[in-house]
User: What shape does this take?
Amino acid sequence: MESTDRRNMRTQFQALFDTLRDPQSNSYLLELFASMIVSPELQEEWLNGGDSNKVKGCSQEFIDSLPRVPRSEIPLKESCPICYEKFGDDEYPLVAELPHCHHYFDVQCISLWLSKHATCPLCRDVVNQKTFDNIDLSKAELEEDWGMYS
Amino acid sequence: MNSRLLKEWTQLNKNGNKYYLCPIEENDMTHWQSEFEGPNNSPYRGHKFTLYLDIPSNYPMSPPKVRFKPYSMPHVNVDWKTGAVCLDILESMWSPIFNLQYVVESCLRLLTEPNGESPLNLELGILLRVSDHTGYNGLINYYLNHPHNSLSSK
Amino acid sequence: MVNNRRRKSNQLILGITLAIGIGTSCYYLWKSLQNGEDRKISDTPIKDATNDKRNKSRCVVVTSSVIDTMNVIPWSQLLEDEEDLVLIVIPSCKDRFHLKLDPRFAYKVIRCDTVLGVWSCIKSLKKQELYVNLEEFPDGERNMPDDIPRYVPHITYWKNEKDILTTFPI
Assistant: This one.
């Protein structure tokens, strides 16, 4: 079989496989048939590739809004834990600080990681969780009187 | 991220590369191998093992693909035929701060701390689960000592 | 013309194949009739060790009757000579089965703490032949798991020491 034919067949199989994976589809027999024809390794590859649509990463908006460490506060002798390069080796270092755990990374490195993940590479803290730092405590006193002591 | 690999390679050479981690071919940084001895407090002591590491193009954003030499590692979390390793840090628990040395060390740790919950070798998994230590060690010892040709056809 | 010739040669091939098949069946039938009286009722005829030891792939489960043969059958020698022979010792015999064995071959004796462990080893090793006396297993554990035949094609059920000696004649 020519390689182009084989490639076309593979693409079609992959498309079929993707449709059958959809939990809405109820063609169990076809799914069984496809899983018998397609090798387990290839199935795994397609499964992993297919999941890139359902990325568990952070939104671009969140990534762009990561606080930047001011130039003067960047620990130039320390290295980015992802690329192992010293922050100071860059002429114009761009360093981001994760809002919850406060770990530092190169902006470029952490952006790439967070596009597909939502945890800190160092401590696995969930980066886009809401924190309690921003609660306005001044309003709390006003609401204390719930009429329970009347 | 090739510069990361180069940095690792430099560090390994500087710090005494105790797991003999190196690219298999000089100019190809995508295929590495490592050689180490089984830990003393394990049924693997006295035997040498080879680990192959295939580095993806977006490393360290993705983990390397790791496998032992086929038909050489009888272990609960290793596929005997392909050498594939089932290890959490190589999948969901991967972090880009990990490096190849850490990967090798984690595989080494597996030899003393097999994970009974995700067995790739079902029979060894059962022996572990029912705490049949004599059988577990005995079966591993058999595979480690028996000539490979007769076992590779299974 | 060509079709006729092709059909004739197909028929010839078919004829030869049938003849061979019938001939082979007749031979085996005759052979089995010859050995009929000596055969035990088992899945496979108990083979003796005069066959070429090199090609054998055997797994023997060591139970008490095997231990009784220790002074008679040279197990250590067998383990050295037969490349693909493995002995799996059931828990109750673990401390009773001690051979003076060349350390190079010691790995061929696998002891187990559990009966489940014994079956797991058998499944893992996938030898061609299995020899086992189920009646000497502990009470309540005398049934062979249903899937063992999927891992070992030829299973021989020993009943006593005599059966062992038939398989491993001295």
About this structure: Chain C has six helices and five strands. Residues 37-45 of chain C have pLDDT under 50 and may be disordered. Chain C touches chain B at residues 57, 83-84, 86, 94, 107-114, 116-118, 120-121, 123-126 (CB under 8 Å). The first strand of chain C starts at residue 58 and ends at 62.
